């Protein structure tokens, strides 16, 4: 299977052109739901294997923009839009389990011919990464689990209310600023503007409205999978996050080759709020 299309993302949105320090390519890969969309940064240098990055619920690949720009100087970085998010196709049957996303990740890395790579996931993306690494140990060289717990006390339908649309893109930007106050202005603008599309005279979120009322990963329990992973695994916690640092330390201790680090001043969306610090931590770990 080969990618459907590759295009220069800098031609799609003027907001990227000024902030990007390198080219961003968009890749569309055929998948079970229709198509998977991913962003590519950097290039294969032969120095390090590619890095695949996964975002969390209601997010998008653009969350990883600044981290990928920094790490892309020495390697190829691929950031995936999970199914139902960003430019990836929505599932008409709401097939959005973590297992469904793991299957999509398998499709992506096979389509891009990545026999061995590093893997980083944030929030739900981290759970997907854990599941994939446990299932395909020969493919993942090193793993980074960013700000997530492996099991949940709240149910999948206990989701806090959030806006589905905005009157204009600046309103979307203001919303993201409240959620991630420490995020750099340029990155937050890229992320917020790419997170909405024109709809009904306003701007709607670029994810399936299903996620406004249901987060399927709340059914998950990944403690056993963590113990099965043999590769080096870095557990990254945001100091100000609602995710409990003590639980993430326990995750590292439960893993065969786990390491723990905390990013000072960051909330839950570490890649958005502290891209420079996260990039430095990941570069040191992966390199």
Automatic annotation (TrEMBL):
Residues annotated as transmembrane: none
Keyword Chloroplast: no
GO biological process: proteolysis
Family to which this protein belongs: Belongs to the peptidase S33 family.
Species name: Paraburkholderia silviterrae
The protein's name in its UniProt record: Alpha/beta hydrolase
Keyword Hydrolase recorded: yes
Keywords: Hydrolase
